[in-house]
Design goal:
Radius of gyration: 14 Å
Distance between the termini: 33 Å
Mean pLDDT: 88
Number of strands: 7
Number of helices: 3
Low-confidence stretches: none
Structural class: alpha+beta
Largest sheet: 5 strands, antiparallel
Helix content: 10-25%
Order of helices and strands: EHEEEHEEEH
Strand content: 25-35%
């Protein structure tokens, strides 16, 4: 079920395990089945954030257009991570793929499992570059 009104948003994708670029490319392909990918930033390599003793990340941000609600978009992001083989690990640890919602239209949400705008939007350089 979708909310019906189209809106733009931004999602962040990151990977620091295995074929990092491949995970990001496959995630974008999978997401494009459920939303329109309007633009994708340059891919950046960045040091881990939170827990430092792990490999560096490849990261990018995609501008999207969707009629999904914030909750529906979160569900699609989590399903995509599972489809690509993301394993459950403690918070801030390495990840095959990580998909975060940065912004979605004018949504402002703060719940335990979803915060829009993203809680660390201003603290992570690759989000802003």
């Amino acid at each position: 079920m979708s909310s019906g009104s189209r809106k733009n948003g931004y999602i962040a994708l990151g990977s620091n395990l295995g074929d990092r670029l491949g995970f990001i490319e496959r995630a974008l392909a999978e997401l494009s089945l459920r939303m329109k990918i309007l633009e994708v930033s340059t891919i950046y390599e960045s040091p881990p954030w939170g827990v430092k003793d792990q490999p560096p990340f490849l990261n990018c941000v995609a501008k999207i257009e969707t009629d999904l609600s914030p909750r529906e978009l979160l569900k699609v992001a989590k399903e995509t991570e599972l489809i690509l083989g993301r394993k459950q690990r403690p918070r801030w640890r390495e990840r095959e793929i990580d998909i975060d919602i940065l912004l979605l239209g004018d949504a402002v949400i703060e719940t335990p499992d979803l915060t829009i705008p993203h809680r660390y939007l201003k603290e992570r350089n690759f989000f802003l570059i």
